[in-house]
UniProtKB/TrEMBL annotation, chain A:
<protein>
    <recommendedName>
        <fullName>Trafficking protein particle complex subunit 2/Sedlin</fullName>
    </recommendedName>
</protein>
<feature type="region of interest" description="Disordered">
    <location>
        <begin position="94"/>
        <end position="116"/>
    </location>
</feature>
<dbReference type="GO" id="GO:0005737">
    <property type="term" value="C:cytoplasm"/>
</dbReference>
<dbReference type="InterPro" id="IPR011012">
    <property type="entry name" value="Longin-like_dom_sf"/>
</dbReference>
<dbReference type="GO" id="GO:0006888">
    <property type="term" value="P:endoplasmic reticulum to Golgi vesicle-mediated transport"/>
</dbReference>
<dbReference type="InterPro" id="IPR006722">
    <property type="entry name" value="Sedlin"/>
</dbReference>
<dbReference type="Pfam" id="PF04628">
    <property type="entry name" value="Sedlin_N"/>
</dbReference>
<feature type="compositionally biased region" description="Low complexity">
    <location>
        <begin position="101"/>
        <end position="116"/>
    </location>
</feature>
Automatic annotation (TrEMBL), chain B:
<dbReference type="GO" id="GO:1990072">
    <property type="term" value="C:TRAPPIII protein complex"/>
</dbReference>
<feature type="compositionally biased region" description="Polar residues">
    <location>
        <begin position="11"/>
        <end position="21"/>
    </location>
</feature>
<dbReference type="GO" id="GO:1990070">
    <property type="term" value="C:TRAPPI protein complex"/>
</dbReference>
<feature type="compositionally biased region" description="Polar residues">
    <location>
        <begin position="28"/>
        <end position="43"/>
    </location>
</feature>
<comment type="similarity">
    <text>Belongs to the TRAPP small subunits family. BET3 subfamily.</text>
</comment>
<dbReference type="GO" id="GO:0005783">
    <property type="term" value="C:endoplasmic reticulum"/>
</dbReference>
<keyword id="KW-0813">Transport</keyword>
<dbReference type="InterPro" id="IPR007194">
    <property type="entry name" value="TRAPP_component"/>
</dbReference>
<dbReference type="Pfam" id="PF04051">
    <property type="entry name" value="TRAPP"/>
</dbReference>
Length: 184, 258
């Protein structure tokens, strides 16, 4: 599972972004998107294209966490959104790992393939990674968003921060990374 | 210095916009972007001597703490004096006070929600039930006004505001009034006779305006003196919502959103 997280101001200016991978079930926390490394801007395209849906859902649903709001099937990208009361948007793009049939080296025997299938199904039932729309995933993303929100509130309470400023603090970045490692 | 705070906020938005256009362009080297601050973190980032940054402090720590009223009165009188320099008239002075309050409102909004959210989750943890859900963002005008009248006022002044009214005139359905019988900010302020129109609670009006704008309800808020015999300092905050808000209000009413 690979994640791309971004914070957008109410006027859609990006304030913060980070890419990371899952740390659950043996993940190493490094993002591996399906786009080639030269096309990472695709993540931003996909995320920003979901803003229309966010703005629609914003007035229909009073919750801060809007859950999974958009899917971009060509890249198997799922987008979850969180809105702060002051209109700042937190958007998380998550992309499950490529199915093993294309990525793993072939030539496995029937026995081993069935074994790997069993292990992957066990992993998917327990892990957040493989099943992007399950209630467990929603819950994990919600926890992640809440933790980022706490740090975001700390940022904006700083008297030196004005609304719409880019968040450059390295401490904030490490906090977000830690939240990602903890929940996703 | 001569810039108004709100204008400079706009400026910073536009500059960060252009920065971020670059940031979007150099997305190919995010690793460099990330590594620069971490490399320079030891010499560049200054951490207080107790090694605690603002991110290490708990936001609820000062929740029940109270500010000394004397120091607030002193600070506020300095703010008024500061705003009074180089103003052309009472309206200009009130506008400046309003602009000092505005960014505060934007911040208080997020802090208020964080605190109600964390208290509701902690209480739900203690009672091990999920009955209390996190608070909702206000979608309609009335929940927003209740938020200002109740929780926001309690956060600022430890009590609710005294009245909440809707304009009775059919020409101005977009006007609402929040009344405070004895605003804390005006307690130690005596306005000279020739400036009797002035109400320094314009600062609080700015806070309200920030909260409304933050929630997506474009509004103009002003403070007016309306003394009664019992409450000589009675102040009415007049909220005038913009046309876009009223239009959306109608759409949402038809859609059945509360």
């Amino acid at each position: 599972m690979s994640y791309y997280f971004t914070i957008l101001s109410p006027s859609d200016a990006p304030l913060f972004n980070i890419a990371f991978g899952t740390s659950k079930s043996g993940g190493d926390g490094i993002a591996r998107f399906r786009f080639p490394d030269s096309a990472q801007y695709m993540n931003q395209f996909v995320i920003h294209s979901s803003l229309d849906i966010v703005e629609e859902a914003q007035w229909m649903n009073g919750n801060m966490y809007l859950k999974h709001i958009d899917t971009y099937p060509p890249a198997a990208a799922y987008i979850s959104a969180f809105l702060t009361p002051s209109g700042t948007r937190f958007l998380l793009l998550h992309q499950p790992p490529q199915p093993p049939s294309t990525s793993s080296t072939g030539g496995s025997s029937l026995l081993s393939s069935s074994f790997s299938g069993a292990s992957s199904s066990r992993a998917s039932s327990s892990s957040v990674a493989a099943n992007p729309t399950s209630p467990q995933t929603e819950e994990a993303v919600r926890q992640f968003m809440n933790e980022v929100y706490e740090n975001y509130v700390k940022t904006i309470m700083s008297p030196f921060y004005r609304q719409g400023m880019e968040i450059r603090s390295p401490v904030f970045r490490t906090k977000v990374t830690a939240a990602g490692r903890k929940w996703l | 210095m001569s810039q108004h705070p709100r204008h400079s906020a706009m400026l910073s938005i536009s500059t960060s916009n252009s920065n971020l256009a670059n940031a979007g362009a150099d997305k190919q080297q995010p690793s460099q972007n990330v590594s620069t601050p971490t490399q320079s973190s030891s010499p560049g980032l200054r951490v207080p001597s107790n090694r605690k940054t603002i991110y290490d402090r708990h936001l609820n720590r000062s929740r029940t703490a109270e500010l000394s009223r004397a120091s607030f009165a002193f600070l506020f009188s300095e703010m008024v004096t500061y705003a009074q320099r180089r103003v052309t008239g009472i309206q200009d002075l009130e506008k400046r006070l309003n602009e000092q309050g505005y960014p505060l409102g934007l911040r208080l909004l997020d802090l208020l929600f964080y605190r109600t959210m964390s208290s509701s989750t902690s209480s739900s943890l203690s009672s091990s039930s999920t009955s209390s859900s996190p608070p909702n963002r206000p979608l309609r005008i009335l929940p927003l006004l209740h938020l200002i009248h109740g929780p926001l006022w309690r956060l600022l002044f430890q009590r609710s505001a005294d009245a909440l009214e809707h304009s009775v005139s059919p020409e101005t359905p977009n006007e609402y009034m929040i009344t405070d019988n004895d605003p804390l900010v005006n307690t130690y302020i005596s306005v000279p006779r020739e400036m009797s129109m002035l109400n320094c609670a314009a600062f609080v009006a700015g806070i309200i305006e920030g909260v409304c704008d933050g929630c997506g309800f474009e509004a103009k808020v002003s403070a007016h003196n309306q003394p009664t015999e019992m409450w000589p300092g009675r102040t009415v905050f007049l909220l005038r919502f913009g046309d876009s808000v009223m239009e959306r209000e109608k759409v949402l009413e038809r859609a059945g959103v509360r």
